[in-house]
Amino acid sequence: MYKNFKDHLAKELDSIKEAGLYKNERVIVTPQSADIKVEGNDGEVLNFCANNYLGLADNSRLIEAAREAMENRGYGMSSVRFICGTQDLHKQLEKAISDYFKTEDTILYAACFDANGGLFEPLFSEEDAIISDSLNHASIIDGVRLCKAKRFRYANADMEDLERCLKEADNQGCRFKIIATDGVFSMDGNVAPMDKICALAEKCGALVMVDESHSAGVVGPTGHGVAEQFDCYGKIDIFTGTLGKAFGGAMGGFTTGPKEVIDMLRQRSRPYLFSNSVAPSIVGASLEMFKMLKESNELNAKLKENVNYFREKMLAAGFDIKPTQSAICAVMLYDAKLSQEFAAEMQKEGIFVTGFYYPVVPKGQARIRVQLSAAHEREHLDRAVDAFIKVGRKLGVLNK
Predict the structure, then answer these.
(1) What is the CATH number of the domain that holds 330?
(2) DSSP state of 361
(3) Nearby residues of 40 by Cβ (< 8 Å), 6 or more positions away
(4) Is position 259 within any domain?
(5) Are 290 and 246 in contact (CB under 8 A)?
(6) Which of 247, 294, 349, 394 sits in a 20 to 30 Å window from 301, CA-based?
(7) Domain match, 151 and 249 both
(8) Residue 25, strand partner residues
(9) How far apart are CA 255 and CA 216, in angstroms?
(10) Given 242, 276, 295, which residue is the final one in a domain?
(11) Catalytic residue IDs
């Protein structure tokens, strides 16, 4: 039987390649950092496509904390939390996350994909409604699909459309309503207008959930995310997020919010109940990371300087850049094959970027997504801009 299935898969893969949509993985042979070595590349390249927003992925202090935690608490837990997979470190990290987001309690997951996937089904039923932004991450979409609640979708950051959905949910007699949104939308880099969302939620009697994966550590006066940026503490009910981006870049996710919500997730959230606990090394390093962020705001301040500098230089060069308030800078190319060719040419110039195209972004919206980091120095940014200009002229993206 596999012969027929194999032929089917081969045809599907060939069609993906012919459409210019095939995704190749490039192998890094060094730690994640601002400058890395890639298999098959001579010398180092500058990395502008990692979620390493605060530059902590290879931080020596975090590495030492991970090593110490592994020596004192072991390599892995070999169990889920409610059986024998909870250590004191897990509880300490959950408290640290709660303190950071000013919430009552926190639950850890293996990844934010699991946090979002396990959020809605334990809390809501067919009597309720989930109103989701059209550009929400796939993990939120999958989490909503696993829930029996009624589903509504509003245009990205469009408050009129959100209000329409809220009224429609009321007209259908929904018991509880929750608005779900990314804090920063990962492909465009725009920030959800949380002040307006919270105002509508209060007006219409809805809960608010935000995924802080690309916003925590990045936006807000001190990088504490969208609640800080829009002064929405106490108005956002549930936060989800990751330890795999700004917060050290390893693994692990979380949901943080009211203690009753977190308690219900501990009882019924399937990714939590049926997945191993986060490894002690990751937990130990994450605890150290939160200590570092309490000590100084230097990394977030440098990240913002880098974003502003890079964006101004790219706009001056004539590139089509989507508006951004985050560390994500979308350089629009619109053509899928062009985005792949552009990324390949950039790698030849020593700049590591990735072309994004359908189905990751809508058809006709292909781009190079540049992600800035506090690990980047000014000379790194200048080299990247120079390479963009050179390749842009070569491929006809720039005319000057």
Answers:
(1) 3.90.1150.10
(2) S
(3) 26, 27
(4) yes
(5) no
(6) 349
(7) yes
(8) none
(9) 13
(10) 295
(11) 186, 214, 245
CA 232, CA 213: separation in Å to the nearest integer?
A: 17
For 162, the domain range is: 60-295
- In the sheet where 35-37 sits, what is the strand order? 35-37, 44-47, 351-352
Helices of type H across 208-365: 226-229, 259-268, 270-273, 280-295, 298-317, 336-348
Reading the block at residue 252, the tokens are: 């692990």
275 and 213 share one domain: yes
User: Is 111 a domain residue?
Assistant: yes
The token pair at 375 is 């690990």
Q: Are residues 384 and 346 in the same domain?
A: yes
Question: Would you list the DSSP string of 19-46?
Answer: TT---PPPPB-S-SSSEEEBTT-SSEEE
For every one of its 400 residues, what pLDDT tens digit does the chain have, with 9 covering 90 and above? 899 999 999 999 999 888 777 888 888 999 999 999 988 777 789 999 999 999 999 999 999 999 999 999 999 999 999 999 999 999 999 999 999 999 999 999 999 999 999 999 999 999 999 999 999 999 999 999 999 999 999 999 999 999 999 999 999 999 999 999 999 998 888 999 999 999 999 999 999 999 999 999 999 999 999 999 999 999 999 999 999 999 999 999 999 999 999 999 999 999 999 999 999 999 999 999 999 999 999 999 999 999 999 999 999 999 999 888 899 999 999 998 899 999 999 999 999 999 988 888 888 999 999 999 999 999 999 999 999 999 999 999 998 6
Could you give the number of structural domains in the chain?
2
Amino acid of residue 338 = L
> Are residues 43 and 78 located together in one domain of the fold?
no
Look at residues 277, 295, 313 and tell me which one is the last residue of a structural domain: 295
pTM over 0.90: yes
